[in-house]
Each structure stands twice: as C-alpha cells, then as structure tokens.
Known about the structure:
The chain has helices at residues 5-23, 53-63; strands at 34-41, 50-51, 70-80, 86-96, 102-114, 117-127.
Amino acid sequence: MSLVVEDRLAITELVSLHGHLVDDGSLDRLEELFTSDVVYDVTDFGQEPLRGVAAVRAAAWALGAANPVAHHVTNVVVTESAADGRVQVRSKGLGIKADGSCGSVSYDDTVVRTADGWRISHRKVSAGRTPLGGRTQAD
C-alpha cells in the first residue's frame, strides 16, 4: 500500500477532529473517528481498555466535568504499513482542564480505511509524566 498526499491529509484531519468533537460534546459523532469495534487503551491511567464506540462515549460522559475543556493534538507522524493496509499514527496531545492545569499524552493509533473513510481502530493513550521519557544520560 502506498499512501498518497490526500490519504495523509485525511488521516491527519481524522486525528485532529477528535479534540473538536469531544470539546464540543459531540459524542454522538464518534463514529466519524473510530471503527465500531475500536479498542481505546487507557491502561496507562489504571483503567481497562475501552472496547467499542459506545464504551468510549460512555466513559467520556462518565468523566463529566473532569474532562479537559480543550484537547490539542500536535506532532502528527503518519507511517504506512507495507502489507496489511493499516497505518500507524503517533501524535502528542495536550489537555487543558477548567482550572487551567495542563497534561500531556502520546496517542499511538492504528488507522484503517473503511467504506466511510479512514477510522481509528486502536488507540493507546500514554501519559507524559517525566521529562525525556524518563531517560537519563546514563541510560
């Protein structure tokens, strides 16, 4: 598989759309982002992976006011897979809370082409907790 520029743009916009939909409370539109059987891995936050769009939606509603008021995605890197039609996307995310505090995550996504366009089939969310990925010069 070879990605053309239009694919790369569509995938980057897909990843960017997440923050807009969630921040707007448009959780009824999550099917525009994810496959119906998406695995949303939040184990780095002490939770079990969420399976399916309905579970992702329910988790966001359950967080309620604890959700960030703003999600910002940056540093999107799209890497095509040679054989299986999947695309790997790595990006950074910043979440701004209502009190002004900020947190950082990395998103590692597997993106697939569906009849409705590109969709995220797997997302692993990893918290940014230490500078330099926790590495020291001695590593």
